[in-house]
Specification:
- This protein has one domain.
- The chain contains six helices and six strands.
- The strands form two sheets. Strands 3-1-5-6 form a four-stranded parallel beta sheet, with no helix packed on it.
- Helix 5 links the parallel strand 5 and strand 6.
- The relative contact order is 0.19.
Length: 144
Amino acid sequence: MKSLCIIPCGSKKIWDKHPNIGPVKAKSVYIGSFATLCRQYAEKFYPESWCIFPEEIITGPYNVTFNDKKTNPISTNELLKQVKAKNFDQYDEFIVIAGKNYVKVISEVLNPNKMKLPVKDYSGMGYIMSALKSAIDLNSTIKL
């Protein structure tokens, strides 16, 4: 079975610490605690198949979120184009490590029947982060 682990972006970015760093690969852009734990989890358990498309370059600072429509987040149609361009149809399942709002958006462009949501039953960011850290420390994925 071919899996792809999908992790969220984050509001804290590398340019917050290093404003003049310039373009950066997506895997190094998001430096907040939650984004860092999600990336560590994905790299440990899905090293060859995870995204925030980790080899893509992000040219500079931005502040866009699915949680605030005023920031003009990417449209569902644009997300669908990315899904096709990245050949997501090759995957049998998607392991989504994210909060409810992110999952809702992802559900609009991926087959929900192929989505596995290991952190969906955790009520709060602190609990999710604790589960991710424990999984990493114990070298065991979060049970689905």
